[in-house]
Amino acid sequence: MTTQTPVEHLDVLIVGAGISGIGAGRYLKAEHPGKSFAILEARAASGGTWDLFRYPGIRSDSDLHTFGYEFKPWRDRQSIADAPRILAYLREAVTENGLDAHIRHHHRLVAASWSSESARWLVEVERADTGERVRLSAGWLFSASGYYRYDEGFTPRFEGRDRFRGTIAHPQHWPEDLDHSGKRVLVIGSGATAVTLVPAMAETAAHVTMLQRTPTYVMPVPREDGLATLLRRLLGESRGYALTRRKNILKGIAVWRFCQRFPKAARKLIRWVNTRQLPAGYPVDEHFNPPYDPWDQRLCAVPDGDLFRAIRDGRADVVTDRISTFTERGVLLESGRELEADVVVTATGLNVQAFGGVDLTVDGEPVHLPDTIAYKGVMLSGVPNFAFAIGYTNSSWTLKVGLLCEHFCRLLAHMDAHGYDTCRPEPADPAMPTRPFLDFAAGYVERAVDRLPRQGDRMPWLTSMSYHSDVKLLRSDGVTDPELRFTRTAAPAAGRERPGGVALR
């Protein structure tokens, strides 16, 4: 990637204007107000997931007191909130922190090439609105693009799909003109999206059936947090939010640890709760008793038990079986039963994609992600000046993003104080055993595990999923480490100015 024309230089280039990228921009602006940065967003609007998905009932599956930012109190009464409220909150954060001018919409990062000689990334960006290619240079790349493909959801191959005479929709690409009122709806899937869609569509559909191959753990949770409302009233917005956030962090950790340490007891408790929510005599073990232990995959939260209520009211039901083939009127199951439908929703998951699918090269050598190891869950071995934001799989995503953004800002301050311009993680033991970066049993992770980075068997190469451990690692401990190499680049050649300039030839 070479150019003879002047290239705009930035200190930090953030990729993605979703919940992670907005947070990264705010921390960077607050801690390093003198640094130049931009946030590239491939789509026409900020908000990431919360602007992309438009299917009925879309909501968070984490409480907003922990899913929200530490620096911005969540003031809405809904604790498990729907997408429009979350999107409004994120866009308020953009405006309140002066980030609008830093976000460049319709900018998709295509490739990024690191040069050790200049200690810079040269990046190629595609303008979706004009089709042109532009180039930028940056001292650091910060990937806040999440872990799945925004342009494509996952749909398995279904035999006979083309024979179906009704409408088929995927939640990631919801048709604006889809009217399911008075129609028979079949939702294929059992994850968070499916358990959200079923009660939402059942409000106006003739009937909704959730067809699943394997049950999922589902738990009712209050949509509103009464204690949070009381604490805000007594202590004020900021203090009440901080205390609620701390309370919910501890509660989430306690639930996860209980499930991990006492899986049989957790299974019995969840089954007991489900039984109380469902009609008498309902086959709980057939439809709500997974073969795996609680929190081997993420638990699905249903606000105020809306899924169970739809089943009790007869507006929805659950079928556990496998699809043999689509028919003209619906699907034929392996059991021989046919489920008729007017609308089929394939809530079958996501396609995992690391770092937005960007092609990375370091000094002309392509970066093969499975050969890299995650350093503190925020950088990659052998890749200089590159950071990324991946949140928790067992807790609120944003809890980790906030900590790693703080750590990133402290790392920049350390480099500035000592005159370093390059930072590269390198394992002291090249033969260190590794395992998957996302050590999680979900299908969407297992489908992509061979295309993702790895993690090691010891710190700082372990990817922590513990908030308390990360508070110490990312907030309290220093940023230096024997396996993190800091260097200063020699004086730049003529025509290649240091950060702050614009010439790059």
Automatic annotation (TrEMBL):
InterPro entries: FAD-binding_MO, FAD/NAD-bd_sf, Flavin_mOase-like. Its cofactor is FAD. Gene3D superfamilies: FAD/NAD(P)-binding domain. One of its GO terms (molecular function) is monooxygenase activity. Keywords: FAD, Flavoprotein, Monooxygenase, Oxidoreductase. Its EC number is 1.14.13.-. Pfam families: FMO-like, NAD_binding_8. PANTHER family: MONOOXYGENASE, PUTATIVE (AFU_ORTHOLOGUE AFUA_8G02570)-RELATED (PTHR43872). Belongs to the FAD-binding monooxygenase family. This is Flavin-containing monooxygenase. It comes from Saccharothrix xinjiangensis.
